[in-house]
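Example 3.2
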Amino acid sequence: MNAEAQIKKGRKYDQVVDGARAVFMREGYEGASVDEIARDAGVSKATLYSYFPDKQHLFMEILRSECAAQSEVEVLFESTGLSVEEKLGVICKKLITFFLSDFGQDMFRVCVAEAKRFPELGTAFYETGPKVWGMKIAGFLSSAKAAEVLDIEDPFLAADQLAQLCRTDLMLKVMFGIETDPAEVEIDRIVDEAVRTFLARYSRTA
């Protein structure tokens, strides 16, 4: 599907996209109707169809834009005056905060639900989200400063391991509505344990 060739931009394009984003994140692809999207966007169906030929193209455009937004969530590697251990803590805190956010949770649910219907969706989500984060973390782990205290042969594997240490049971509890407002102390405990476990594996011994 060549969505870019069939999508037109215009004065109410952002309005349509914003309305569609709200509906798709709320209802998923199958549950969202063009009528509901038009109502949320405050436009007519004719206006909506003037920008997007069908619901599928609109859905893919929303997911592309949301994946792009995900990749723009910066891990603060540029923070000066922090030790490697402190920077690892910043990375873990950013990752966990994203995993637990409404946006992160909604994106995960929608992508899992629709990836089989749209195989290209899984690739787009991975390429613009997790892969970008992984490359940024691997870049830090490969830096001269990190190498002073860490002994890492495969920074991309290590970056993935660090991210996995942040995907704890708390993420599932939030996703399933078992816990809706995690305490900051609980998040900080996960951060501390993730960093300690990572350092136990990769700290340079000599």
